[in-house]
Amino acid sequence: MSTPASYFETMYQHSPDPWHLADRWYEHRKYDLTLATLPQPRYRRAFEPACSVGELTSRLAERCDMLLACDRVASAAATAADRTAGHSHVRVEQRTLPDEWPQGTFDLIVLSELLYYFDAAALDLVMRRTVAALEPGGTLVTVHWNHPVDEHLATGAELAQVLAEVPGLMLTADHRESDFILQTFGRVGSDGRRPVSAAEREGLV
Q1: Pairing assessment for the beta strands 134-145 and 180-187 based on DSSP bridges
Q2: 121-175 confidence digits (pLDDT tens)
Q3: Given this model, what pLDDT does residue 127 score?
């Protein structure tokens, strides 16, 4: 069974930033690496679910023309909205996935510290909706803690095995450390065309 909503609500009742995303060097370094793996300098329309207090959101805002972020916990979404108030192209909403998946398509989707909270059925639905919403040639980024946690239904390495089998995605970058697994995928076109690499985009190969 997926991690219940009460777990997240309780976490935020005890602290406005329960995972210390704003002040841990570990988190700041991970965000820098996440942005560095993006193969394009800029994205037209991005989606970041489970944005928490908006630390990664504020960094993604610098690389996107439009960014939709969301979190299932109202206080977290409110903090993220305040954190990104200076960016008129960023919208933060309270949404619960996979049921409240947004309309439209995106050329960037970021699934950070999210997928291990879903059971197998919900994870399958999230990934099917992710692939359906990701434009051909678009980028999917996934990054997950790789140590066992009681509330996590999988580790980062175990999720990587699941993601390797998702139809329509091609792995383009695979960064693994003992603490977390960071991967980027490109959306394969309906004609089978693979995503363009950063070097190919600039005519280097």
Answers
A1: antiparallel
A2: 999 999 999 999 999 999 999 999 999 999 999 999 999 999 999 999 999 999 9
A3: 98
Separation between Cα atoms, residue 104 and residue 48, nearest integer Å: 14
Q: Among positive and negative, which fits the CA dihedral 13, 14, 20, 22? A: positive
Among 106, 110, 104, CA closest to 60: 110
- The helix/strand/coil state of 79 is helix
- What is the pLDDT, as a whole number, of residue 19? 66
Residue 155 one-letter amino acid:
T
Q: Report yes or no: 176 and 133 within 8 Å, Cβ to Cβ.
A: no
Query: For residue 141, which phi and psi values (nearest 5 degrees)?
Result: -115, 135
Mean pLDDT of 87-91: 97
CA neighbours within 13 Å on the CB side: how many for 120?
Answer: 3
Task: HSE, CB side, 13 Å, CA atoms: give it for residue 187.
Answer: 21
With a pLDDT cut of 90, the percent of the chain lying above it is 84
Assign 16 to helix, strand or coil: coil
Could you give the CA distance from residue 6 to residue 139 in angstroms, rounded to a whole number?
A: 32
**Burial label, 26 (beta-carbon count in 10 A; 0-12, 13-18, 19+):** exposed
Q: At what angle do helices 74-83 and 5-14 cross, to 10 degrees?
A: 60
Whole-angstrom distance, CA of residue 93 vs CA of residue 77: 6
Could you tell me the two tokens for 24? 């841990």
